[in-house]
Amino acid sequence: MSRTSVALLIALVLAPLAHPKDKKKSTLPTEVLRAQTVYVMIQPTAGEPLTDPLANRHALEDVERSLMKWGRFRLAADAITADLVITVRKGNGRMVNPTIGNSPIDNRPVIYDPTTDGNSRIGAQHGRPPGLSQPGMGTPQDSEPRAQTEIGSSEDMLEVYRGNIDFPLESSPVWRYSGKDALRAPSVPALDQFRKAIDESEKAAAQNQKKKP
After folding, report:
1. pTM for this entry
2. How many CA atoms lie within 13 A of 185 on its CB side?
3. Are 196 and 20 contacting, i.e. CB atoms less than 8 angstroms apart?
4. How far apart are CA 144 and CA 162, in angstroms?
């Protein structure tokens, strides 16, 4: 088992998780409620499934389009300037999955994708964005494609991290959601749950403000 697979398994066990079956709700931190920009990327440890090499790439694009349709956040061109960093990873229903790591498919070309509401989706990142994790902390450091075996969640996953800090992916995600077809377009249920979590947190914050003398 590779170090990357072990790191991913540990992260899945330790990180807080929002799941369709969970009833407990938690309030999002103020930084999330005040955030204006977001950067979306594929989880650095996620490889491309052999049966569907474009799965993660399509999930990223679907999340970006859903964010633009929502209209609450602006898409950042890079992770360094973003208030929030969102990572996505497609599941395929299996806990153990052979994949290709460092696939060139993940390299993001220059994109201009106008929408009917006047917004646009622009990307200029080539390869994995640097500076999100320190070297040796679970993020692959080599750039050559390689066969690997991933061990972890069998479901789609979306994680939200604080931005504007050094190595944001080394901190625990402030919110995370996993579920079957959670990243499936056009509804993208994971993002819908994130929107609900923000609405509930804002309502809770407003109620707490009213209680103050």
Report:
1. 0.71
2. 14
3. no
4. 29
Give the single-character DSSP code of 94. Answer: -
Token pair for 146: 């390689």
Which tokens is 189 given? 């249920």
* Residue 55 tokens, joined: 């799965």
In this structure, which amino acid lies at residue 92? N
Angle at 175 between CA 51 and CA 12, to 5 degrees: 50
Domain locations in the chain?
Answer: 3-20+27-211
Task: For the beta carbon of residue 212, count every other beta carbon within 10 angstroms.
Answer: 5
What is the edge-to-edge ordering of all strands in the sheet holding 48-49? 48-49, 96-101, 146-151
CA–CA distance, 39 with 161 (Å, rounded to integer): 10
Residues 104-158: pLDDT tens digits? 555 555 444 555 555 555 554 444 565 576 655 544 555 555 555 655 568 999 9
> What are the distances in angstroms from CA 147 to CA 49, 88, 102, 136, 167?
10, 20, 9, 19, 26
